[in-house]
Automatic annotation (TrEMBL), chain A:
Source domain of life: Bacteria
Transmembrane segments: none
A single GO molecular function term of this UniProt record: ATP binding
Protein name: ABC transporter ATP-binding protein
PANTHER family, sorted: ABC TRANSPORTER ATP-BINDING PROTEIN YTRE, IMPORT ATP-BINDING PROTEIN
Keyword NAD: no
TrEMBL record, chain B:
Positions of transmembrane segments: 20-41, 278-300, 329-351, 371-395, 420-440, 664-685, 705-731, 743-765
Protein's recorded name: ABC transporter permease
UniProtKB keywords: Cell membrane, Membrane, Transmembrane, Transmembrane helix
Domain ABC3 transporter permease C-terminal, chain residue ranges per copy: 284-400, 663-773
Species name: Mucilaginibacter terrigena
This protein's record includes keyword Cell membrane: yes
Domain of life: Bacteria
Membrane topology reported for the UniProt record: Multi-pass membrane protein
InterPro entries: ABC3_permease_C, MacB_PCD, Macrolide_Exporter_MacB
Primary location: membrane
Subcellular localization: Cell membrane
Annotated GO CC locations: plasma membrane
GO MF terms held by the record: transmembrane transporter activity
Amino acid sequence: MIKITNLEKFYRTEEVETIALNKLTMEVNTGEFVAIMGPSGCGKSTLLNILGMLDDPDEGSYVFNGIEVAHFNERKRADLRKHNIGFVFQSFNLIDELTVFENVELPLIYTGVTASERVKRVEEVLDKMQIMHRRNHYPQQLSGGQQQRVAIARAVVNKPKLILADEPTGNLDSSNGNDVMELLTDLNEQGTTIIMVTHSEHDARYSHRIIRLLDGQTVMENIMV
Amino acid sequence: MIKNYIKIAWRNLVRNKGFAITNILGLTIGMICTIFIFLWVKDEVAFDKFHKNHDNIYQVMATRDFKPTIFTDPNMVLPLAKTLEGGNPQIVRTAVTSHQESHLVEYNNIKLKKDLYVASEQFFNIFTFKVLKGNPSEALKDPKSIIITESAAKAFFGNDEPMNKMVRIDNQQSYKIAAVFADPPGNSTFKFDFIQPFDYNSDYVKNRMKEWGGSSHNVFVQTTPNANMAAVDKYIDKIKHDHSKGDKISTYYTFPMNKWHLYSEWKDGKNVGGMIEYVRMFTVIAIIILLIACVNFMNLSTARSEKRAKEVGIRKTLGSDKKQLITQFFFESIILALIAFVLAVAFVYLLMPLFNTLVSKNLHLAIFEPFFLIGSLIIILFTGVVAGSYPALYLSSFNPVKVLKGTFAAGKSAVLPRRILVVGQFVMSILLISATIIVYQQIQHIKDRSIGYNPNNLVMVPSSSDIDKNYAAIKQDLLNTGLIGAVTRTSSPITQIWWKSGSPDYAGKAANGDIIFSGLNADVDFTKTMGIKILQGRDFNKTPGDTAVMLINKAAVEAMTLKNPVGMEMNYGRKFTVAGVIDNIVMASPYDPVEPLMIYYDPNSSSMIDIRLKNGVNPQAGIKALEPIFKKYNPQNLFEYQFVDQEFGKKFVTEELISRITNIFAGLAIFICCIGLAGLASFTIEKRFREIGVRKVMGASVRQLLMLISTEFLKLVVVAFVIAVPLTWYLMSNWLQKYTYHISISIWLFAAVGVLILLLTMIVVSLNTMKAALANPVKSLRSE
Ligand SMILES: Nc1ncnc2c1ncn2[C@@H]1O[C@H](COP(=O)(O)OP(=O)(O)O)[C@@H](O)[C@H]1O
Ligand SMILES: [Mg+2]
């Protein structure tokens, strides 16, 4: 599904140039559940953003489902993204002005799903995430665990082929964290490819494979048994 | 999708009440100004447009070239209209009218002074006034008929049928009401209560119809659509010159009705505009005020962008492209503009009577007129799009990666543009305020100009044939009251010039070229009554009349370059000796230099009796004393009077009106700026709440905290001031150039405006900062 080759990403500030990704090469197959680990600042988020087409690489190739996307413009990336990729963030990133239902509905609006179909699909995922009873609440009225479930609901409502999760349990206690990991595992078992950044060895154990990064380069890959 | 936009726009407004109220308030005030200004402008532009043929109606005018001065003259000879008719296929109709005259009209025991035009037969075929009863065109063919307006009919006949009633004019002939029509609208050049036909059988009209010199009528032509006006002008000019070979100084041409009102000023034979300048000026002011309000929205939106940044990041992550986000933000600004507009319309409704009094018009808001609907759409879209443009582009360009990572300090990159916008707002406001003050000072300056006579405690009573007959007795009776210092009579009010001509002949007059003279007839005690200084020689002094002498003014002496004017011989129809030279007196426009003037005695042509009340006499008591005397000698007429100072004051009506309007708009512009400033300040404080708390813990005083926040804004005001001063100076110096007598712009003015704006900024910012500065720091630190 994903094949990146010699991917490079630099950040230039006034004086220093940071190499966030350094000739990184990796591959992720459809249906895999991959965990990315590494010390803070090694480029994990940068990688995830590029994989999610929120950002573009400076050098190298990124083939997504057989299409070279490294040099796509914003519009094309947005188009590809909204149909294929769901995001889960450490800090949830729900829109405060929208209710739970409306937050989850948002991706469907952007992909042009009809209103009646939207209601059906949103209710379906809310049910599955067990937050149906909170559908008319605003994000601030929910606990962290509930917010993350809404965020996951939003990530999967469009039935994306790929879910990118950046430290999804980082702001949660271990019980809520485990719930989230169970949810992701379920999704993966139903065929969704998942790439997750995490600091937690415990969480990483839910995955099939761990890619360890250091200074923007792969240093090791563990295959989980 | 649209529902989603509206939903989130609405919730954003409700959530951020301060932001919403600040913006809506600013936009509403801006729109109120704009709506009022546009209504005023529309009324001005629509002047005379209610005539169906307004595109094809022209007045015949003359450029009269008295070398070296040229003046533009609407006065024409009576037979011109008839002669032009039928002679040129492009001229469909012609009409001639008298000047607007005020006459005593009587019905039963009701006597009223009413305005009247004498008009020729085609008048109502050219000008389409709304007829209520009768056939005005037929009525104009019958010299025994008269046509009345609705309100005049009401004044004389109440609810009785006006048709066929007889009214008497000036105690002489009676006329039958043959038609009634609606009062001319407020934006009509013709304003009248009656229209009366010419009586071609009367000796006076018969004689005037043969007379091709001595112009005192107005002539109008209606042409075919798309007529070649150059050819029409040429034809008119030729006809006039064919009939008056002696007329060597005049060129005749047509002046379109569409320009009568807005382009009414002439200088050196050229049209120099008129109200159009104010129409343009106010249109610009309306747009500036609206822009100032839009800038508030831009600034507050971008200042608040940190709050919106996350939303933008998420939406982009979820697949929204930039265009969709831009659309969304435009939606928000347009919704805001719409709300503000609805409020503005409500306020315009409420304030309309006040505004009408202010501008002396009778405007109203017709919501279902296409003009209003289209205008509304334009105002809402303009405001929404202008206000929303920068925030939309700015917010939608956020990079989702940076925003969601939290390292992105939204609003930072908008700081400079925001500062520029604030500076722009203040430049506009300082300009408007300074300009307002300069206009005011200029008007005061003209008012303070020495006018050469004393208009206070001076009364004018319109003359009549009875008054002229009994003048000597009246004068004696008046003086006998003991309240009156002096009496004279004049052929025109001292506040107007009714008579202009070439100069009299005198020794040393240039062979080619002439000087334009104003003329006046006056009686004994002229200078004494008016309070005019005699520079050389003497006043009229023989009783009953000093018929062989002439007074001239200082301007005349200068224009004729005379060394010893007193005793010189002047020939103006007959021989006069110059008896005295008087100081220049301002009879015409107070904005212009005084023209040469000649005055001589003519007992038969007085229009005003001029009465000087003694010093300290209460004017009302004076009038009480006058009344019985005039009633006694002039029983047929109404007793009327005017105070000269008030009449003179009328010369400032337009300027004072303009000054009043600009005052208000400048004030409102500043107010909108302050609202925006308050919003920005409170936002800055919100962001720096923690910082303020920390500083307080470290020992900062409230005053230091106020300074800390204020400086940021005061700097901007100073920059605005530095830009605004030269700009204002340049624009207003240009404006002042059109006045011969004008002030020079003072540095103190700018200093005062600068201090005012700085103070205002300090106050607005301090009020907002105070709360944070006084708050318990523990609270602000915990709130993190
Ligand atoms: N917007 C940016 N500007 C400059 N440097 C950045 C930016 N984003 C990330 N970096 C740098 O790139 C490197 C990788 O960052 P990141 O991918 O966020 O690391 P991780 O998520 O693994 O902690 C770090 O050194 C970080 O400082
Ligand atoms: Mg990271």
